[in-house]
Amino acid sequence: MRVDHYMKHFLLLFAICCWCLPIRMFAQSARLSVDTSVKVSDVSPTLYGLMTEEINYSYDGGLYAEMVRNRTFHHTWAGFESWTVVAHGNAAMTVGQDDSGPSRALSHSAKVTITQASPGNEAGLANDGYWGMAVRPSTTYAGSFYAKAEGVGLGRVRLVAADTGATLAEASVDVKDGDWQRYAYRLKTGPQVRDGKSNYLEITFSHAGTISLQLVSLFPPTYKDRPNGNRPDLMTTLAAMHPHFLRFPGGNYLEGDTIRERFNWRETIGPLVDRPTHRSPWGYQSTDGMGLLEFLGWCEDLKMEPLLAVYAGYSLGGEHVVGKELEPYIQDALDEIEYLTGDVNTKWGTQRAKDGHPAPFALRYVEIGNEDQFDKAKTYDERFAAFAGAIRAKCPQCKLIATMPVNQGNPDLIDDHYYKTPDEFFDLVHHYDSMDRKGPKIFVGEWATRTGSPTPDFGAALGDAAWMTSLERNSDLIVMASYAPLLTNVNPGGMQWSTDLIGYDALRVYGSPSYWAQVLFSNHLGDKTVKSGAEGVNSRFFWSATVSSADKLLHLKLVNASDAAQPLVLDLGGVKAGSATLYRLHAATRWATNAIDRPDAIVPEKSEVKISPKDWKHDLPGNTIEVIDIPLQ
Ligand code: AHR
């Protein structure tokens, strides 16, 4: 009995000690000193950008606004994926493959044979999109299809609510007998329609006959009303990051599993009907609706500069090309560069003008290949040198990026990739501090802290923020950096690579805590780092201090990746006493996160704080990222 009593007290005391220990450990104030009058190094104006490829249904079923899935009737063992047959009432029909199509690129189609149909008893096909179709009130959807028909006559196209069968919008299309033709239609929803994604598209006919269909398309309004354009909600989410460049088209998507499945840019330009589509190494067919010119339109819309990755003769399965055999691939790259930069008197500049963009694009960065350290045959030195020589002659202003260190070809930049845990990034934050500044510059073309799925949790955001302080401190060397992967469709089966910055379904989009950390870091970045130093801080405390000459601000970034608060005393030389703007991103635990149904659980909070240049006492809570904009004197 007495032993029990003592034991209880002992346990209580032990629990209190355990609880207090972290607080006691960090309770002492630490000092952070910043001297804004001492500029240490340049910050690259292009530091933060985007890396992108067709993975996780990033474009198809993601950014690229097409609503119809498998619009080109790609045939698998399971038939035409995403398409089902429709037979209302006593209508009867069959569906099979037709070995003809509207173009050389799309030389097959789906043949629908309607054996019995009448008004009210219609037959045809339905498509349920990429895990549904987002339908909104008072909205016009632009559709089209190619058809070759006999006898079916007037067709009916409808957007249908899956749960009620209600028609949300409909249109008639008069299908003529005869050879392949393109038909366009518009579907307008009324004000009574509610936002939803459990919807499908139906195309039906009320007369017996045959119709072969190809390239069945439906687009909602797009960002800046671009035809064949992007989803406005996703574009707005990306715009908020203020990215300076876009690295495209990959990533593994550039290489393909085989040479045949590489990103062959020539097959991604011009009318959609001339794009054959191709298999992405991430396991699904790419429509190539997001083709070379669409990537560039995306750059224009978000004011990003293109960072073009060219295929360099190596594919993921190990196929590689060397010697004379490389020539056609080098020519591909040169023609691709001409498509971007050539004036309208050049062959590929003329083609670009024909495709709708007479003005050339400015191109400063070309990456040769992707992750060529995986080429077991070790041919990258030779391949890089061959591409580099030819590209330099064609595009003298282009800075060339190698995907690994090479002994030939003199790369201007090396692309380093990091996929890490938070702890690994905490250990890596000084990796670049003492690196030789005389060699090539660094492009951190892919990086991410990988905890959390489908999107990063707060622990990952802390790892990212710590890493970004090191990118900023070393931005004289690291001229560009881009998180990867950028996007994921969160539906089951949508994701091939976990921990992606932004999640979405057909209707909604959300930013992960890591996304918000990037928004904060990218939007509050100066042009010089300044002298700074800390004493007595915990081992998971990180910071960055840059000043913006144009805005006359110190952007102070503080990251406390420990669970315990970090009391700080700050000396901020050269700033004004008074008001500063503080943005705080905080979560109770490292496992806290945002999700498609909880999009705003963790978002930055903005407030005004009073600061003093000397001995300013400021407590940084545990698990917190702060950006403080402080006016300079
Ligand atoms: O970002 C996912 C993949 O990671 C990229 O496609 C590839 O470059 C890297 O291995």
Write a brief structural summary.
The protein is an alpha/beta fold and 633 residues long. Mean pLDDT is 95; it is low at 1-6 and 10-27.
Topology at a glance:
Blueprint: H1 2-27, E1 30-42, E2 48-51, E3 75-76, E4 79-80, E5 83-87, E6 92-98, E7 109-116, E8 123-127, E9 140-150, E10 154-161, E11 167-174, E12 178-188, E13 199-205, E14 209-219, H2 232-239, E15 245-248, H3 252-255, E16 278-279, E17 285-286, H4 292-301, E18 305-310, H5 327-341, H6 347-354, E19 365-368, H7 380-394, E20 399-402, E21 413-420, H8 422-428, E22 441-449, H9 458-473, E23 478-483, E24 487-489, E25 502-504, E26 509-511, H10 513-523, E27 528-535, E28 541-548, E29 553-560, E30 566-573, E31 578-586, E32 605-611, E33 616-620, E34 624-631
Parallel strand pairs: 1-30, 2-15, 2-23, 15-18, 18-19, 19-20, 20-21, 21-22, 22-23, 24-25
Antiparallel strand pairs: 1-27, 3-4, 5-8, 6-7, 7-14, 8-13, 9-12, 9-14, 10-11, 10-13, 16-17, 25-26, 27-28, 28-29, 29-34, 30-33, 31-32, 31-34
Helix pairs in contact: 5-6, 5-7, 8-9, 9-10
